[in-house]
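Q: Second attempt. The first request was missing the SMILES, so the protein and coenzyme A are both included now.
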Amino acid sequence: MGMAEQLGGLRKVKEESSQLESKSSMSETDKERMGPDPIRTRTAEFADAESIARLVNIAFRTERFFIDADRTDPDKVRMLLPKGRFLLAEEVSKLVGCVYVELRGERGYFGLLAVDPARQHSGMGSFLIAAAEDYCRAAGCLFMDLTIVNLRKELPGYYRRRGYLKNGTLPFPEDQHLPKIPCHLVRMSKPLG
Ligand SMILES: CC(C)(COP(=O)(O)OP(=O)(O)OC[C@H]1O[C@@H](n2cnc3c(N)ncnc32)[C@H](O)[C@@H]1OP(=O)(O)O)[C@@H](O)C(=O)NCCC(=O)NCCS
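A: Got both inputs this time. The predicted holo structure:
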């Protein structure tokens, strides 16, 4: 089943990119939560960098309690594009969700998962995670990795409920704005089997 069809029972979805074809593990419950508006999914192009950065920075305002800076900017988004891809979810022509996915040999990685605050708790995050997993699985990856900041207490449970387990720690990246509170990254992983 393609990414568009995953949502098709409940909403009309226009799938424009065959590269996003995937067998999502999104549950029927997740699909029902997505709501009635049409969502279009596609892979980002360079021209999308501004809107991706805007969405990520709005969504990641939730991290302002430990970091006084935007999460990204259009140049940083553009620098990621040759290494990986952003999967986008658009409502009419507005970007409402995105996730960055990278193939790293037998492991996949996703980051910068961001959902428009007005659309959170509607299944969009779960949908994008499933799409990222399907993309990596189809490319032959055996595992998926992600990292979270240890100060985000709600995230381990969110990812655990989607099959991820803690798998080590990493220092907070030096190329990011200095946090106000000492912190580190926690890696979480899931077999893609
Ligand atoms: C983390 C984030 C991506 C989650 O996105 P989301 O679209 O809200 O995620 P979902 O809707 O799939 O799931 C959120 C919760 O709402 C629940 N939910 C989904 N639809 C729902 C509905 N209609 N009514 C009530 N709850 C609902 C989900 O079941 C889930 O709860 P669970 O974990 O107990 O199952 C989003 O909050 C975000 O962008 N946060 C800021 C950026 C960020 O922190 N990114 C991750 C960094 S690692």
